[in-house]
Amino acid sequence: MQIIENLKVKEKLYIEKFANGLTVMIIPKPGMKKKYMIWGTNYGSNDNKFIVPGEQEVTEVPNGVAHFLEHKLFEQEDGTNSLDTLTALGVNANAYTTNDHTAYLFECTDNFYEAMDELMDYVQHPYFTDENVEKEKGIIGQEIRMYDDYPDWRVYFNTLTAMYHENPIKIDITGTIETISKIDKDILYKCYNTFYHPSNMAIVISGDFKPEDILEEVKKRLVENKPSGEIKRIYPDEEESIVKPEIVQKLEVSNPIYTIGIKDVRKENQSKSETVKKALSMEILLNLIFGRSSKLYQALYKDGIIYGEPSLDYEFGKNYAHVLITGMSSNPREVYKAFKERVEELKNNGINKEDFERLKKMIYGSYVKEYNDVQDIARMFLSDYFKGICSFDYLEEIEGINVEYLNQVLKDVFKEDKMVLSIVENG
Amino acid sequence: MEHEIKEIKKGIKFHTLNTDKFKTNLFAIFLTTKLNRENVTKNALISMLLRRGSKTMKTQEEISKKMEELYGASFDCGLDKTGDNQVLKFYIEGINDKYIPEHNENILKTVIESLLDIVFNPYVENEGFKKEYLEQEKNNIKQRIEGKIDNKARYSLERAIEEMFKNEPYGLYKFGYEEDLESINEKDLYKYYNELINSCKIDIFLSGNLSDDVEKIIEENENIKKLQEREPNFEMPKIPEKKEVKENVVTKSMDVSQGKLVIGLNVNIDNDEEKYTTLMYNSILGGSANSKLFQNVREKAHLAYVASSSYYRFKSIIFINSGIEISNYDKALEVIKQQIEDMKKGNFSEEDIENSKKGIIAAINTIDDEQDTGITYYFGQELSGSNVSEEDYIKKIENITKENIVDIANKVQINTIYFLKD
Question: In the CATH hierarchy, which top-level class contains the domain B248-421?
Fold first, then answer.
């Protein structure tokens, strides 16, 4: 077992890779009553086209299969549902799907090993029938409709549609009512057998545990698996250009909601350290441009054009990266114009050293805060792991960032021809 | 975790939660005042205005820069409706000095002093709030009030509450009313602020790895010294009066793709102890994935993705929430009503009871593991005038029987059915 210690937050990560390829990460939290376990597979809504190990031809599945699988995995052959079983143990169980991974989890204070029995049993034993697949379509249909009524979700997905031509990141994670109608049990089994192999999965556990003990407990519950070959995932080529500069949707909202998107290029073979530094720099930059203390935010707030701070995000995965700035405004086009002007001004004048040092401290602090809660810790380590990153790296790499580097990133990413504006407004 | 309370002055309490579990220290100030139509908008405005600047940090920009300098201390405000009270909440979460690169700063002391300054020493010009700030925050509040419709599920819940508590304080919208804004000016509002600050209930919370001098820092702070003793003007939760209600059905059309169904229930309890039983009742009805609503509305009838209920103990009410196909309204309502009836008849198992107990006890056990949950728990106790330790809470839950729950089920009445459709 490898041990990585971080002296800044004073935490340790124990990491082990089993012979079948499964990675297990343990972050002990002595003194905490809460315990958290999450089991993820590197398979999300982006993985719709692939070659099954050992096969020649390409498999293409309808949008929304990864999420559908997440719902159905709880179903057991004896007619029970694992979500019920886990809830009955007094644990808080759940699952979620993102564009690059699907995860099954529970949080508890008591009955940890009983819950582990159930979690590890249901994730390893799928049971799909025509009937239970059909039934789920009604439930997921209502989940899709629920998202249709969320203006925030619409403005987000519309931004992706305006930025990406082919990249599957622009597909709704749930699929649509039309695409899920095509899902059947054979498709689910095929995707399960391809992507739920231990070599494509990772477990993270955090709580008051001895790492050696917990590792043994995990091992005991693993079913045997034949080694599997590499899954070939096929992602369409994506042009660097955007699709369209503006996208507008009408919904019943009090004030317009906007997202400014900036499409970034993910460099091939970017080193782990480079990836982390880039992400940290983007966080510093976004706060510098539009954070609570920024000139732009102060000016727009005073003029009553924006009401609260916009959310500032830099999202990235294996084959995409983009900026998302989302907020509510009486005049989104005005916000967009002022934003672009501020970016140009910063490019010309360079970044102020004092602002830079202050925001660097702030971003450092925001990473320290992630280590308060077993859930935040476990989820962060899992999602970073599937991006090829160890979460501790953020705390270490931030020191190496300087103003020159930041100025360079500003010039590389904040290009006007890569920006889009998405608006949801009344009408 | 040790929870200690010290009354600094009459009506002003300092609560400490000393623990070394966290990387952060959380400092919070809660101002609690009676909810009423006259002051609701003013209180909301004050909660927004105080963020804008103090006498020592005159602008929002200065406050933000200071927070960023403290390794991203996060300054946050909230406005809550708790029972018949309006609660103005202010927080700063700062990193514990142990986890920053240089150990020569005293972040906690700066955090405490900054928040006391923001809340009790606002920026004032000509014996009033700054006019410019007030105008901007009026605009902001207006947007919050109008923004009620943006989240359709939340909107339906707010509307159901308004219907259930017509002409009562709890039916008021916590951000107030647009028509009040025009007549509020910076001088009168500042005068009102001084009344509020010297009459409201003040609770100061500090959770984290605390040094011995924190009490001194607070007590010797100039802003604390100038506060008067007071008979705090707030409302303790009461056992609600029993009244015969007729099912009130309200429907409204909006541009939605999914119907949002909210059902408000009265729970006519006779004493405080029954609140624990009501918590159990709610858990079995719609509080978890094993609940009757989740199992029957979602898993068996496939009518919804969301089918749940939540208990508002300060008002002894329960809200059932569900998002359904608009054409399935009758079917969904029938299934939901059936669950309420089944509860009355005792159609639930000992296993349901055991499972619910486990879930509730697990939630109580995590109170100490989350800084904000700890504060919320003890503040809830403070407001209801009770002092139930986590151990006693667990015991009360463990002792609840099926008979108790059926008894509560028969005290449940449907008050309002609210349906948002296209």
Answer: alpha beta
